[in-house]
């Protein structure tokens, strides 16, 4: 049970996000893939010292293009579309956003556009339904798009007994799902408000992006007594610099051009898991246009079927 403190942080603040994450860890216990998981039971961590059975050293991973190729929210959107959550024009927009993300990386404007539209579309749907669809999307798509190099790196941290946390703009329910499947301890993600198990269409706090990632990690470190100087962080975008800067061992993975230049300037090591950079660039552009073409084909086929049905009803065919 989570104890309510007199100095309970403001809803949606980094401290509140960290408290929720720490409470989930206390309830669920450490990852089953961790060497000490069998003996470490549920704990109630304090800011002054590491939680019992947990290492004070942690590794923080961004998700999109760091662990999983492309945007995980795009693949979730596809799963939701197949179940009637979205209209055709909504999913076409998601396709174009995915193509732009793969080709040029993320931008704040793009993320805000996707967030606003996604929140509107999710209004009235149940959390349980979205999580169930997320499980299917992970099995059918996301698990196949994990970079093997990042998987090995994450597993190495787990084998060393380190805590592993995902830090992602993806909804926290999906972030937790991915973390659980990877054997990580938990996720810090965007919190969408829900009432009685149904999404309201509003955010709790800000999107988990840019400085918000760093603030949430700092709050979690205080909550769990983590040694950030001995910890590591991984991300792919210039927007992950605040996150990477919170730890003693920052390392960009599959960095975009701006982050690659920044890493060279400040002397950060870089990991590249996309294969040869020229081939990777070619592949990303191909994936982008293929996605757009696939979307166009999807809409064209759907329109053709709709027109055929209309003609049959009209002429009794």
Q: How does the SSE layout of this entry go?
A:
Layout: H1 14-28, E1 58-61, H2 72-82, H3 88-104, H4 108-122, H5 127-140, H6 148-159, E2 163-171, H7 172-182, E3 186-190, E4 192-195, E5 198-203, H8 211-224, E6 232-235, H9 241-244, E7 249-252, H10 257-266, H11 277-315
Parallel strand pairs: 1-2, 1-6, 2-3, 6-7
Antiparallel strand pairs: 4-5
Helix pairs in contact: 1-8, 2-3, 2-5, 3-11, 5-7
Described by the principal axes of the CA atoms, the overall outline is: globular
DSSP summary: helix tally: 11
Low-confidence stretches: 1-8, 33-49, 282-304
Mean pLDDT: 74
Query: Total number of β-strand segments?
Result: 7
Main beta-sheet strand count, sense and barrel state: 5 strands, parallel
Would you tell me the structural class of the helices and strands?
A: alpha/beta
Order of helices and strands: HEHHHHHEHEEEHEHEHH
How much of the residues is beta strand, in percent? 5-15%
State the end-to-end CA separation: 64 Å
